[in-house]
Design a protein that fits this description.
Elements (H helix, E strand, L loop, with lengths): L4 H4 L3 H6 L15 H7 L3 H11 L4 H4 L5 E6 L11 H20 L2 E6 L5 H11 L5 E4 L6 H12 L4 E3 H20 L8 E5 L3 H13 L3 E6 L2 E2 L9 H9 L9 H5 L4 E4 L7 H5 L6 E4 L9 H4 L5 E4 L14 H10 L7 H15 L17 H15 L6
Parallel strand pairs: 1-2, 1-3, 3-4, 5-6, 5-8, 8-9, 9-10
Antiparallel strand pairs: 6-7
Helix pairs in contact: 6-15, 7-8, 9-10, 9-16, 10-11, 15-17, 16-17
Length: 391
């Protein structure tokens, strides 16, 4: 039996997606010949000429200052994996929708039919003059690291791989509050991160930047440590900068006596391993749709539990970060998003919780109206401090 669009519309998800989730709307009215002559020829020529003479005027007289490209090659989509650019489009449309809904940022989904690093970098770089920022999305590791690094070097607008940095910002915010709740500074915590893909690496890096006491990272072959054979350059760098305790076994072995577990691997962790963690432990089982350990199981032993799901407390959701991060960067016409700007975003996000902090409320809801403005203000202020703001 052939599946047709009409036969799918009984499913509310398909019904909602019919025709796509976003559209382009004009910001001015064209009511008569005078309006037309200003919006298009001949009036538009005066604007074009001015921009040709002074390129920075494009920020004021085109949409560039408020629009982000959401770019993917469809190789690492949500929990679906390598499904290709066409199948990735509903996710990229959704991302664009969230940019607009939560921070008033216009965004254009762009799914590319290429996966080579050189092709991706060249294509995005050629598209860049039409946008004020580039949000990379669902590009598989380790290619995503090189793609982002090279685009950051090439472009003078913010480039941000949300799978990495959005996850990292929200995780740091939640961990800061969990540590505050349990009465310990980050510098006294030992963490174990399961997963050395895009999000695992970024979470590790931001926790190091924030001053975590020690952190060990595992991949499918066990703990990453200095001297382990077969490490790619990204993992070699992790081996140099992490695992001061020198753990060489499995994730579960490293959890014995650890204070923090962050799961970003899609694997499973036994209740026994969680029980072996230190008193007052913090468990962030973030894999979707199935957490590494079920929250109700982890809660038998941990002081704070978070997941990536909306049907449990403490959802680590990237929408808490990326709209405000880009809003703040665009507002000051930043040339980049620095590490300090990411940490500032996490601090602002954590502060929204304030005195309402509980074990089931270490991170605010995406629907808390205070979130995007707080992150926006913090990112914009830090951009000025870091010298990357142009306005």
């Amino acid at each position: 039996m052939t599946t047709t669009p009409a036969s799918l519309d009984h499913d509310p998800a398909f019904a909602l997606h019919r025709g796509g989730k976003i559209e382009i709307r004009s910001t001015i009215a064209v009511r008569d010949a005078d309006d037309l002559s200003l919006a298009y020829t001949p009036g538009v020529a005066r604007v074009c000429t001015a921009i040709a003479e002074t390129p920075a005027l494009a920020d004021d007289y085109t949409w560039v200052s408020n629009v982000v490209a959401v770019v993917s090659d469809g190789t690492a989509v949500l929990g679906l994996g390598d499904i290709g650019p066409s199948a990735a489009m509903p996710v990229m449309e959704g991302k664009a929708l969230l940019f607009k809904e939560f921070a008033g940022v216009d965004a254009v989904p762009i799914c590319l039919a290429c996966t080579g690093v050189d092709e991706l970098v060249e294509t995005v770089a050629r598209l860049a003059p039409s946008f004020g920022g580039i949000n990379l999305e669902d590009i598989s590791a380790p290619r995503c690291f090189e793609v982002e690094d090279r685009l950051r070097e090439l472009l003078d607008i913010p480039v941000f791989h949300d799978d990495q940095h959005g996850t990292a910002i929200v995780t740091l915010a939640a961990l800061k509050n969990a540590a505050r709740l349990t009465g310990r500074p980050l510098g006294e915590l030992r963490a174990v991160v399961a997963g050395a893909g895009a999000s695992g690496v970024a979470v590790t890096r931001i926790l190091l930047e924030a001053g975590i006491g020690d952190i060990a990272v595992s991949d499918s072959k066990g703990l990453i440590y200095d001297g382990r054979d077969g490490l790619n350059p990204v993992k070699q760098a992790l081996a140099r900068d992490t695992n001061k305790a020198g753990h060489t076994g499995s994730t579960e072995e490293a959890l014995a006596g650890a204070d923090v577990f962050v799961g970003l691997s899609g694997s499973t962790v036994t209740e026994q391993a969680i029980a072996s963690m230190a008193a007052g432990s913090i468990v962030f089982a973030l894999s979707n749709p199935t957490p590494e350990v079920l929250p109700e199981v982890a809660a038998r032993h941990a002081a704070v539990v978070a997941t990536g799901r909306s049907d449990f407390p403490n959802q680590i959701n990237n929408v808490l970060a990326f709209p405000g991060v880009f809003r703040g960067a665009l507002d000051v016409r930043a040339t980049a998003i620095t590490e300090n700007m990411k940490v500032a975003a996490a601090d602002a996000l954590a502060a929204v919780v304030g005195d309402d902090l509980t074990a089931e409320y270490v991170i605010p809801s995406p629907f808390d109206a205070r979130v995007a403005p707080a992150v926006t203000a913090a990112v914009a202020a830090q951009a000025r401090v870091d010298g990357v703001a142009r306005a």
